[in-house]
Amino acid sequence: MTQARRVVVKVGSSSLTTAAGGIDPERLQALVTALAAVRARGVEVVLVSSGAIAAGLAPLGLKRRPKGLAAQQAAASVGQGLLVAQYTAALAAYGVTTGQVLLTVDDVTRRSHYRNAHQTFAKLLELGVLPIVNENDTVATQEIRFGDNDRLAALVAHLVHADLLVLLSDVDGLYDGNPSLPGTSLLGDVRSDEDLAGVEIGSVGSAGVGTGGMVTKVEAARIATGAGIPVVLTSAPNAATALAGDPVGTLFHATGRRRPTRLLWLRHATEGKGALLLDAGAVRAVLGRRASLLAAGVTGAEGAFHAGDPVDLVGPDGVAVARGLVNFDAEEIPRLAGRSTSELAAELGAEYEREIVHRDDLVLL
């Protein structure tokens, strides 16, 4: 933290709201004070904040988070304005200007959207603005949702080239079991998946206002640390301590290096729009040599996809071994499958001499 110049902080619904569903002014103020202190040291901050749906429950007379998507979106529509208004007023007292950024899955899975989002964040930070990010719950459909803001925060951390991701929860770190039971211990450091062996990771918190849980936080930590970004997981009351650089909660050490953004979102923020069926030789080439996928190794296709869509590369055993951005529409694949690139170029033209999936647009699963 003491070396970080750009930090993404994610706070969950249960850390911001009362049991009745409204925003807790004291909790929000404590978080804002901690963020302002970091900013005063010259550190750029991006806040990924849950709480829009939870904040909209009380004004709508709802006692708990509704299960239906339409009701959730109605609550988000009401609550998002209330949430950002409180952040804006509280941070303005410290001379900090805020900007609201609502993201959908398309913004991190479609290349043009992703590039535009990156440029927007870059300009906001250049202008000294503290961006407040949330999933655009009001318009997202069930099929195209992040599902939780933990994964969103990890992807945003990579998108803005953050030096650190801080996940604030309703527990003070990752335990090797249920923290409410005696005999469990806090894991201070996680350096690899081996450190998680035997760890019982729970699900949604008891407050019933969030969608995440420890499972989503550990997955978010894997995404970020695999891209070279360390992660601190602790409770919201420990935010000031964590952001001051003092040891608190669980530190997930970086395990990988920063990767091209398209590969990170391809692996963690997409689902295959269809599948390319590979023969055994193509599987060996993709896995063993990290080669591009050529038409000669393709035996068929499944699903309806278009050029530029993410598709799964499936071996003869039916197991998806990789995901990549396909260069052709699904209906074109049958006449290309099993044929050499030189043959295709001679018969169909030079535009068919390219790879089905280029190795630079491919990640192993």
Set down the secondary structure blueprint.
Elements: E1 6-11, H1 25-40, E2 44-49, H2 52-57, H3 69-92, E3 98-103, H4 106-109, H5 111-126, E4 130-135, H6 149-159, E5 164-169, E6 189-190, H7 214-226, E7 231-235, H8 239-243, E8 250-252, H9 261-268, E9 274-278, H10 280-288, E10 298-303, E11 310-314, E12 320-325, H11 333-336, H12 341-348, E13 362-364
Parallel strand pairs: 1-2, 1-5, 2-4, 3-4, 5-7, 6-8, 9-11
Antiparallel strand pairs: 7-8, 9-10, 11-12, 12-13
Helix pairs in contact: 1-3, 6-7, 6-9
Strand content: 15-25%
Question: Gyration radius, to the nearest Å?
Answer: 22 Å
Per the principal axes of the C-alpha atoms, what is the gross shape? elongated
What is the N-to-C succession of helices and strands?
Answer: EHEHHEHHEHEEHEHEHEHEEEHHE
Taking the alpha carbons of the first and last residues, their distance comes to 32 Å
Please estimate the helix content: 25-40%
Mean of all residue-level pLDDT scores: 86
Summary of the model, kept short:
With 365 residues, the chain is α/β, with parallel strands linked by helices. Helix content is 34%, strand content 18%.
Folded structure, characterized:
It is a single chain. 34% of the residues lie in helices and 18% in strands. It contains twelve helices and 13 strands. The chain has an eight-stranded mixed sheet, sandwiched between helices. It starts with 5 loop residues before the first strand and ends with a strand.
List keywords for this structure.
365 residues; eight-stranded mixed β-sheet; five-stranded mixed β-sheet; 12 helices; 18% strand
